[in-house]
Amino acid sequence: MQQEVFEVLGEARSLEDLRGIEPRAREVRDRYMEGLGGATTGDLAIRRRVSRLNYSRRCAEASAVQAHIKQGIPLAPGMEIAYVVKDARKWEVDPAITASDFDA
After folding, report:
1. Which secondary structure element, helix H or strand E, spans residue 94, and what is its range?
2. Which residues contact 104 (CB under 8 A, 6 or more apart)?
3. Which of 15, 27, 36, 102 is the most exposed place for a label (fewest CB within 10 A)?
4. pLDDT at 1 over 70
5. pLDDT digits (tens, 9 = 90+) for 31-73
6. Which residue ranges make up each domain of the chain?
7. Buried b (16+ CB within 10 A) or exposed e, 25-57
């Protein structure tokens, strides 16, 4: 979805063009949001290879590492993890294997 929105927005050559393109970009977003109703948590899992287990700032990957460790899933740098964002504002995620909900 993001790539398609960026492609639409990339057509703008000025601020005025951007204002004119905004409705098309919103249509793309709305089309994808409507499709989320039938999505499963597995469909929305983010897969990342972790480079470390300690992070100095809050981010989804840091939360994912902590969620895996909290659930007793052993991790080491270089391993691939899969997680689902359950609350984007609070950076709350669940490991994909135990996720039951997602933040649209």
Report:
1. strand 92-95
2. 33, 36
3. 15
4. no
5. 988 888 788 888 889 999 998 999 888 888 999 999 999 999 9
6. 2-38, 42-95
7. beebeeeeeeeeeeeebeebbeeeebeeeeeee
